[in-house]
Amino acid sequence: MSIFVTVPTLLRTFTQDQKRIEVQGQTVLDVIEYMEKQYPGVKERLIGDGQVHRFVNIYVNDDDIRFVDNLATVLKAGDSLTILPAVAGG
Amino acid sequence: MSRLLQGCSLSGCFEQVPVGFAALAASLRYQATTLGLEHRPSYGDPLACGLGFSFHHPDLSPIEGMIHGWPDGSAHGVTEHTVQAACGLMSVHGRASGKAQGLGLDYVSTLSASLALQGALAAALGQLRGGRFNHVSSSLGAAGVLGIGQYLAGATAADEAERLLPGATCSKNRPPFVSADGVHFELETLDAEPWRRFWAAVGIDAEQAGQGWKAFLLRYAKAVAPMPMVLRQALARLSMARINALCALSGMAVCPLRSLAERRADEDLPGQLKQGPWAFDGGVTDGRTLSALTSGELPLNGLTVIESCRRIQGPLAGHLLAMLGAEVLRIELPGGDPLRAMPPCVEGVSVRFDALNRLKQVRELDIKSVAGREELYERVRHADVFLHNWAPGKAAQLALDRADLARINPGLVYAYAGGWGHDRPGESLPGTDFVVQAWSGVGEQIGQASGTPGGSLFTVLDVLGGVVAAQGVTAALVHRALSGQAVRVDSSLLGAANLLCAQSLQDADQPQASLLKGVYPTQSGLLAIDCQTPAQFEQLRRILALDSQTTAQRLDAVLGSALLSQAAQTWQQLLDAAAIPACVVVEDLSQLDQDRRLKPCLSLNAYTSVNAHWSFR
């Protein structure tokens, strides 16, 4: 099942500068594990202790996964996953 | 400790200043007093193109300061209101307040006064280190542009530039919120989880709460927060008591919007106003002098600042010190500051991030690890300044508090750019821009002037707080150079808020500076007008052929229709020629570089960046 990931600038060093990659997975965590296999080092930039880092936001289409099922959020074919830094506080 | 810079003085004619410079002069004088500078009156030329002052100390040649109206050295049409129009501040504030309009506070004047004094202090430091810095000039216009530098970067990025115009988002569906019993309040949390729990308790579904969180996070980056309407509607059905209870249960911070009158009645205020926006605490006098200048270009060349700061206030402070020549080393967590990836990006770096950090060196370091801390200690040993903006208590937890670092480097200037400051009056709440705006009365003032329920989503206090922090560090370095004594300097968003409202907090019956002030549509574009003298007002009536019998109530409408006959740019020229303060309101930030008055302070690269604020000779 193909999912498309928009890769943030900081992770493009792992993806050989690709902005958008095609990955596989049933859930967000699956996708991250899949990415880790293809592009080692990505996972620890996104999650630690089984949770998404506080300063990272992951959206499935337009929805923040923290308000769905976090890393267990279920994906369907063609979904688009966007990773963005979170800015809270000034 | 007693006032930091005793023995120094500032002379200038601050009572009789050119039209449009009064608020700047008042803030300059207030800030100088709180730093310990003795005031020496002198005669000035009220028709001059700016505000002149000079800084004196027995060991130094006098330092002549000049604050121009515009970066090109001119002063036509300069007032707080017209500068906010021309530098894009009205545009940024307008993104979430419904239309391009001013903040209703002497914001650029305060910012400019703080920067000008910082420039003079830097020049003094440069002289004490063997350089020749006898003149420093800056401008109100450049201060305004500096204030919106991050937003300008976002709007002018070569790739994926943001296009957010005034009125881009609804001025109602944004924080602050209002309860059923009519209390306006800000919500704040730095994590999604309390937000999710809170809205679930209010009865909002997760999808809407998630959309709200996304909008909530946009505040700090883009000055907008387009919330789903149901969030606001749901809170409008609950009493404030109920909302407070739900916040307590979910871990969400809540801060009712307080008035300036309430702030005036706070017990801590008189002390804070007397102290100014900084708390200085002297340390040991180790007799060591600061290194001498080896290259004479900038007064802080050769000084090292270590900065461990995130987001806006702290990084801006470091950026200003770098603009003065300091070598700023930014400590970032392993992998780099996540905000480096905040779009829009050019050449792999967020332009908004770059706007505040492009002049710094970076070292990625895990300061929570023993090895990381050891390396930081080693670097601090050879540094002149350590600057951080961590949450309260974290410095002690990390063994990186003042005492920890003083053991390694007794002469270090230790600076903390925090939220609530030394006296910590609001510390039970997160010390973030919008909460401090609400608590301090700044939010109420802006809301009243803007026809909105609360403060600006432009980060009013983060920016002023950053400038104030850098100014405090520069003052501490001057003190260090004069006395050999190390200093800790605390500054805060609340201190910045107090400074911004200092005149109104000290005197509730401040006279209104303007006889007529507004933003008006014209045949093409918006025009900001600010008549400050009866002569200007009469001249405007004559040019627009307004009936002298027109009542004050009808004046705005009559004026509005008279201005529809020409384009804003034409009116600006016409009114300029008649010495009436008027400026085209810049609505699209990407047009800012078209203003020849502002060109000297801008560089056009992969995005439009703001040049160093000061010019020394």
From TrEMBL, chain A:
Its domain of life?
Answer: Bacteria
- A Pfam family of the record is ThiS
Q: Which InterPro entries match?
A: Beta-grasp_dom_sf, MoaD_arc-typ, Mopterin_synth/thiamin_S_b, Sulfur_Carrier/Prot_Modifier, ThiS/MoaD-like
PANTHER family tied to this protein: SULFUR CARRIER PROTEIN CYSO, SULFUR CARRIER PROTEIN SLR0821-RELATED
Q: Give the protein name, as stated in the record.
A: MoaD family protein
* UniProt lineage: Bacteria, Pseudomonadati, Pseudomonadota, Gammaproteobacteria, Pseudomonadales
Automatic annotation (TrEMBL), chain B:
Decide whether keyword Acetylation is in the record. no
What the entry lists under Pfam families is as follows: CoA_transf_3
Cite the GO molecular-function annotations of the record: transferase activity
For this protein, the record's InterPro entries field holds:
CoA-transferase_III, CoA-Trfase_fam_III, CoA-Trfase_III_dom_1_sf
Q: Which UniProt keywords apply?
A: Transferase
- This protein's source sits in the domain of life called Bacteria
List the PANTHER family hit by this protein, alphabetically: FATTY ACYL-COA TRANSFERASE RV3272-RELATED, SUCCINYL-COA--D-CITRAMALATE COA-TRANSFERASE
What name goes with this protein?
CoA transferase
Q: Which organism's genome codes for this protein?
A: Pseudomonas tehranensis
